[in-house]
Write a structure and sequence with these properties.
Shape: globular
Radius of gyration: 20 Å
Structural class: alpha+beta
Order of helices and strands: EHEEEHHHHHHEHHHHEHHEEEEEEH
Number of helices: 14
Amino acid sequence: MTVEVRGHVADGFEPVRAAFVDNFAEQEEVGAGFTLFVDGSMVVDIYGGVIDPGTNEPYTDETLQVVFSTTKGATAACASLLAQRGLLDFDAPVADYWPEFAQAGKQDIPVRWLLCHKAGLPTFDRKLTFDETLAWQPVIEALEVQSPYWEPGTRFGYHAITYGYLVGEVVRRITGMTMGEFWQREFARPLGLEFFMGLPAELESRVAPMIAAPALAMTDEMRAAAAQSLLSRAITLNGAWPDLATAANTREYHAAELGAAGGITNARSLARFYAGLIGPIEGGPDRALFTSATIDSAREPQSEGEDLVLSLSGTSVQTRFGLGFATTGPMQVYGGPRGFGHGGAGGSAGFADPNLGIAGGYVMNKMQNNITGDPRFRALLEAGMKAAGR
């Protein structure tokens, strides 16, 4: 298909634009955006396609997009900022900040394990409704009384949705603010971002609906087994949520402050966020929001190897996590070997590599089933790194 690409491409970065166009022709892209910063300067900021296949409304830099687990990078940054200020000790028990968490044998779990998926709490046994999960407190109470699904610290498994509640409640106990409030005060407003955990109602019309990925071919037996898996329970909060695309296309989901999967943003803001962590940026603070020590701590691998939640039916999925951020590894590339960031269900991703001086963001409305990294993002990243000589 022919796609109109809007936005800015600096001289020498035309191959990134070409890779972006190729994604529409080769990967059935519908609407998307990609932004790249090099040494604090925005060298690529492009958008194209349509908001909905049934309309001709263009996908532009004004379009906002649910980015699912790409949100986890923003939540991780909130925790790291508190640690940088001496207000949070990653090695202290969670119960030091959140006393009710100490129930059911969880009294010794350190904050660090919440961020690197070692806490053994990817879901909970309590049955809640969709509305109850969006109300926050019912999930907090369910997690407080929940026994871990494995011995904490001995294994790790992706806390797809509970991550946002667990880390978010620690942030709330320390600051007295919700995740969305703290994020806006410390990151979104200082960096000039349109990036929300809890979307204001007046911006609702700008959100592009998610287009679900094609259903995987499965036998009835495979489908039944998958529905009972820890992964299914993790991504539905024990059956409270419908499939992700359906949930994400509701106003209730957009309004909730879901620090694991509810972020709504665009490529430019996602890229500015990561660029602002590692250095000064155009129109933003004159220094990095994170010290070099904070960056090194955030990206130091904490969990690496087979993921207990994502590995299904004898298929081993290898992941690597630092303190809330994913790092360059088997599932995704975030620049060089020391790059860090986070991707989201369906394909979106944000990243930074301070060693290479690059940062970027990719958003889209057409989801793909690519658990080992989205080829659309990877093609854009590779083209960007080559054009930048990194």
